[in-house]
Amino acid sequence: MAKEMLFKEESYRIMGACFEVYNELGSGFLEAVYQEALRREFQAQGIPFREKPEIELYYKGTRLDQTYQPDFLCYDQIIVELKAAKALADDHRAQTINYLKATRRRLGLLVNFGHHPKLESERFAN
Q: Which helix (H) or strand (E) holds 11?
């Protein structure tokens, strides 16, 4: 029996907005440029999001004083981390995976606008 993709429709819409931004801007800008453009694209497409929300972190079931601010939290469930690097690296992946675990969220999308000639992205399920 095939396993159903987590938040399939929502993540499809998020990635569609990311592709729209990449098709318009291409690679080569700083992360902040892509973040602003993606915010505008989420608004235009009616994708619910919070930008840089403060999310509680947990360690062994206890809330930490430290918090985490992902680039975006979409649909109140999906962490979207943006990068503008030549390529995604293991530390980017580890960061996303750790944030998922510590925030008790189930899906993370790691999106790299710096890759050429196409947008680079990875999904992480917790």
A: helix 8-25
CATH of domain 8-125: 3.90.320.10
- In order, the DSSP letters of 33-100 are HHHHHHHHHHHHHT--EEES--EEEEETTEEEEEEE--SEEETTTEEEEEE-SSS--HHHHHHHHHHH
pLDDT band at 102 (very low <50, low <70, confident <90, very high): confident
How much is the pLDDT for 77?
A: 95
18: nearest Cα among 73, 82, 91: 82
In the chain, what are the domain boundaries?
A: 8-125
Instruction: Report the half-sphere exposure of 26 (CA within 13 A, side-chain side).
Output: 3
From the list 56, 58, 53, 84, the residue with the least C-alpha distance to 69 is 53
pTM, whole model, 2 decimals?
Answer: 0.92
